[in-house]
Write a structure and sequence with these properties.
The structure is a homodimer of 351-residue chains. Chain A has 351 residues and is an alpha/beta fold. Helices cover 42% and strands 19% of the residues of chain A. The first copy, chain A, has two domains: 242 residues, Dihydropteroate synthase-like (TIM Barrel, Alpha-Beta Barrel), CATH 3.20.20; 93 residues, 2-Layer Sandwich (Sulfite Reductase Hemoprotein, domain 1). The first copy, chain A, is built from twelve helices and 15 strands. The radius of gyration of chain A is 23 Å and the shape is elongated.
Chain lengths: 351, 351
């Protein structure tokens, strides 16, 4: 059961409560380079990114925000450290959300100035804590523990709440999955704000994808998580693809085809890996949900994949095309991929 | 908290209770081809496979088992469908475990013959059910539901228990993660046998790895799972690598280095993806546990990765080498990877 939360709006995208779990990423271009940043955001949009964050390191980057926003479709989030003037500038430039920790920007007046403008412009704020940069007092009181991470985040939340601001999203980041899970479970008991979940510094695309899937997956299965960020060292487009793969696997959202294919075994007589990879590639541009099975075995394949909208099962030299468990026709092995792809394209048209 | 189970031995490998969660795979060679099968098992062993299963499709494959077993180090599991004579032959040939469903092999006498020989040879049996081939009565009574999957497996378990056999491992396979999780949670309440977990027909190496990590990860985090099988369409060695990546991410077992690296952002001034991927590759042969960080930012890097045994943080043209959060020295960017790799090799020697 998904945890009940307050729902907040980031531009036109709702986060929390029963809204779809949003997939997000962060650009790794220089934000001051408007063209490069917009180009990357367009690729992210195409891959299914629901909202995008950019780093605002100085006034020039802040001034680029309105130009970037004018050229993209998805909500834009400004990531700001320490400097309250950049936060005010970002709001003025029309961003849809701020990522800033009010505890790091100095006097109450500065925080109040940001909160006032955020309220006027109906912009939510994400606050959070990172296990690598815990509040000193929390570290002293609780040690390097999930509790210290939660208390560090609660401190930020309370600063905003004291100013009567509650359009808040919360994140708790750590590179340890058990640490992260414990912290999110704890904060889910404390506040009803939507939670941004992810495993930070997850690593290279291969290891980081597996680690993110395990950590984010476990949280989502326990009902926690309203927007997800997969952090990989590399192209942010890959982060979006992995994010979608996680949501699709868990049957929380659908986008384009889902593929199932059996592990090959001593009984497999066709080159299943090549066939499955080719089918996945040739149908990856589809956006309607279709369940497609690539099975090695004529005897068990159609039955084991009876819930697939479409599937193939290979035998020796010949294969079967089946739909919802029923065999449609037999084709020669070398025509199997083409036949399946054509059936899928036709089916997509009819949906 | 990990679920308490009965512990069973598969050869010298303990499964269940407080034994390490075993990583397993299945060969996709023709079992009758002893050389090819042994070669593949050697690669699996090298990658960290704890036990391996082979398909036994006929008498010739059955007769190959003792030859295969003589040449490998890890326990050998025979996967048999329907034919009780192959099961008896496999036991005679010295396998360490059988995967067979007693409900599929006919008369009680045949089942009794297998159980008697398994007892004599102290060989456990894995039974289970697959959502794609549910027992007819269960399907009729419960529909295509997790409950039907659990009842199908319980039927197999009861056949063995009635013959006073309890050296049992249980699996419940489905290609749907929510379906799988519900079924495992249900059966965990019913029996105390160790559970073999996995998501079947997970797909191509990319999607299948993410799906397996999300599904197996969620189960392990909830304390369920004593041995894991990642099912990918392709090379079984990849299944073992992904299995280990899941266990390492969840901090359930350690083997070789664990890498963390930050997502690049607008602040990153070095080619972090190249550096991280190169470090991962050059240190992948190490087997002692080391936590290695590759961070983009000199200011936050050493602090955020303070629990890393060793790390680098890149700046512009120059980088830092740090250990447990303390900076050891500065090096030029082009020497960063070599310097880190050398430090790691030295550290591995001293451990």
């Amino acid at each position: 059961m998904r945890r009940k939360t307050k729902q907040i709006m980031i531009g036109s995208v709702a986060i929390g409560s029963d809204a779809p779990i949003a997939v997000q990423s962060m650009t790794n271009t220089d934000t001051r380079d408007v063209d490069a940043t917009v180009n990357q955001i367009h690729l992210l949009e195409e891959a299914g990114c629901d909202l995008v964050r950019v780093a605002v390191v100085d006034r020039e980057a802040g001034l680029a925000l309105s130009k970037i926003k004018a050229q993209i479709k998805i909500p834009l989030v400004a990531d700001i450290h320490f400097d309250y003037r950049l936060a005010l500038l970002a709001i003025e430039q029309g961003v849809d959300k701020l990522r800033i920790n009010p505890g790091n920007i100095g006097s109450r007046d500065r925080v109040k100035a940001i909160v006032t403008e955020a309220k006027n412009s109906r912009i939510p704020i994400r606050v959070g804590a990172n296990a690598g940069s815990l509040a000193g007092w929390a570290l002293e009181k609780y040690g390097h523990t999930p509790k210290a991470l939660v208390e560090s985040a609660l401190e930020q939340i309370r600063i905003l709440e004291d100013l009567d601001f509650d359009e808040i999203v919360v994140s708790l980041k750590s590179s340890s999955i058990p640490f992260t899970i414990e912290a999110y479970k704890m904060i889910a008991q404390e506040v009803d704000y939507p939670l941004h979940v992810g495993i930070t510094e997850a690593g290279t695309p291969w290891f980081g994808s597996i680690k993110s899937a395990a950590g984010i997956g476990a949280l989502l299965v326990s009902g926690i998580g309203d927007t997800i960020r997969v952090s990989l060292t590399g192209d942010p487009v890959e982060e979006i693809k992995v994010g979608w793969a996680i949501l699709k696997s868990l049957e929380l959202r659908s986008r384009g085809p889902v593929f199932i294919s059996c592990p090959t075994c001593g009984r497999t007589k066709i080159d299943l890996e090549r066939i499955a990879t080719e089918v996945e590639k040739r149908l990856s541009h589809l956006t309607k949900p279709l369940k497609i099975a690539v099975m090695g075995c004529e005897v068990n394949g159609p039955g084991e994949a009876r819930d697939a909208d479409l599937g193939i099962a290979g035998g020796s030299g010949v294969g079967l095309i089946f739909r919802k468990g029923k065999i449609i026709r037999k084709v020669r092995e070398e025509e199997l991929v083409d036949a399946l792809v054509n059936e899928a394209l036709e089916l997509e048209q009819r949906l």
